[in-house]
Design brief:
2 domains; single chain; Rossmann fold; six-stranded parallel sheet; 13 strands
């Protein structure tokens, strides 16, 4: 676990920042109190919740189809015809204003139903190349679980999907994020949603989903006490007060109990911070780099988010690598001791083999990125948490990623067939890495390497975003989860 913020402060600065954080938390509580007083102590909309027609266990079983060897499911694995669909329904009293809003919600659900049908029909075409027209890009090849279904889903998203961003809260804890170093993808997503260039609507009644724009990275930087022995309660209090505020000021959280809301975090503590609000943890869509199923990540409702290390925040020069004939290293890794998996990898392979080059410290005069670009396979072991920026670094370098982890759900795996362009090695198989990689034929390696280059476009953090890049693919993953639920006002 990265148990420290990316920036250290002097004691006087730290005190002032803690005072700012305390003042901010107090203001949130006051906003909540004003909201209660403004409504003459009336409670928020009281809903009688009808149990979903399928259990969470059943949801997870269906979602697990996306990762089973030999299966080639499409995005419609979330809503196959005949399956029970997670159907979140609410019944509440209807004033004229509420009935008008209920009509808008029904229109949204009608659009979702049409999209489900279109995607389901597209999924029946099992061609490796999409049959749909597109001026920019036509998905094709085995990197996709179903190219036609994905393409139809993406086009349907572009046509109708809208996101409402709550405006409560003030920077730096809200509406802002670090766009450099290891947490860059979190900050870039927040900033893009704030700019409103894609998908954003300012009419909450038109929204399909609602974004909670708090930054766990910024909470850690400004609220977390370095001397508190990992006490995350202050971070949790901010999030609890924030959810309480929007639930009093707006009807949408209470209407769905959070099912159509999403948060996004690339910090290791994102899952823990979300656990301070039960409905956020259990119902809302959590977009997380730390996509660990053993720690509560649910693939049917949560989204795995790509982690990319951008030291200066720039994306230029990310993509490159030598042709396969000039890749003279079988496998490469360099990284500090960071968790049990890396301990096993370093203990087993450090300074042991020139084919499997494993370093704790990259030797002086040696270039980390040159090693990536000179290797056939790049080892991507989990650290204290499951996510690693090395996965995307490998893809950018044209190096076949070797995922060494347990319980990790790779990004966009509801659409991408990771088995076609990566190697997944169980932790217990670390001593057999060379044998496993040597067992991959040259022709199979060349196919995988070509697919790595093809999949690069889906992980590019472009500024501004381009169709099918990482920003749009992340939104598409959120779109798929929204397709998986049905919200009803009566």
């Amino acid at each position: 676990m990265r148990a420290y913020p990316t920036k250290c402060f002097s004691s006087s600065t730290s005190l002032s920042l803690h005072f700012m954080a305390l003042l901010f938390i107090t203001s949130l509580v006051l906003v909540s109190c004003r909201s209660i007083l403004a409504s003459n102590f009336s409670t928020p909309h009281v809903c009688r919740r009808v149990q979903p027609t399928s259990s969470l266990d059943a949801e997870n079983r269906r979602a697990s189809m996306l990762h089973d060897e030999g299966e080639t499911p499409s995005p419609t694995a979330f809503f196959n015809e005949g399956d029970e669909k997670p159907d979140t329904k609410f019944v509440q009293k209807g004033t004229d204003k509420e009935n008008f809003k209920g009509h808008k919600l029904r229109r949204i659900e009608e659009k979702l139903a049409k999209a489900r049908y279109s995607i389901r029909e597209a999924s029946k075409i099992r061609n490796l190349t999409s049959t749909l027209q597109d001026p920019d890009y036509v998905p094709q090849g085995p990197i996709y679980r179903n190219a036609n279904a994905f393409h139809r889903s993406y086009l349907e998203m572009e046509k109708v999907f809208k996101v409402f961003v709550y405006e409560e809260g003030e920077p730096p804890l809200f509406h802002n994020g670090l766009s450099k170093d290891i947490y860059a993808t979190e900050g870039r997503f927040i900033n893009e949603m704030e700019k409103g260039r894609h998908y954003r609507t300012y009419d909450p009644d038109e929204a399909f989903v609602y974004y909670l724009p708090f930054s766990v990275v910024m909470l850690v930087e400004y609220v977390y006490d370095l001397g508190s022995n990992y006490n995350l309660d202050p971070l949790g209090v901010v999030v609890k007060d924030y959810i309480r505020t929007i639930s009093y000021k707006h009807p949408f959280w209470n209407r769905s109990l959070g099912h159509d809301h999403f948060m996004l975090s690339c910090h290791d503590w994102g899952p823990v911070v979300s656990s301070y609000v039960d409905l956020l943890y259990n119902n809302a869509i959590r977009v997380l780099c730390n996509a660990n199923t053993s720690e509560g990540f649910k693939p049917a409702k949560d989204v795995s988010f790509a982690e990319i290390k951008l030291m200066d925040g720039e994306v230029t020069g990310l993509v490159g690598g030598y042709p396969p004939s000039q890749r003279t290293i079988l496998a490469f890794f360099a990284g500090h001791l960071h968790g049990y998996i890396r301990y096993l990898l370093l203990h087993t392979w450090k300074n042991k083999d020139q084919d499997v080059q494993v370093y704790e410290e990259i030797p002086e005069g040696m270039s980390y990125y040159t090693k990536l670009r000179s290797s056939k396979f790049c080892l991507c072991p989990s650290g204290y948490e499951v996510a690693s920026p090395r996965i995307v670094e490998a893809i950018f370098a044209g190096c076949v990623p070797v995922l060494i982890s347990d319980s990790y759900v790779p990004p966009f795996s509801d659409v991408l067939n990771w088995n076609s362009f990566s190697v997944q090695v169980a932790v217990k198989e670390i001593p057999n890495i060379k044998k496993i990689l040597m067992g991959i034929s040259e022709s199979q390696y060349l196919r995988m390497q070509r697919r790595v280059k093809q999949v690069q476009r889906h992980f590019m953090p472009n500024e501004p975003p381009k169709r099918y890049d990482m920003f749009h693919m992340t939104v598409h993953s959120i779109w798929l989860r929204r397709l998986n639920i049905h919200i009803q006002d009566q």
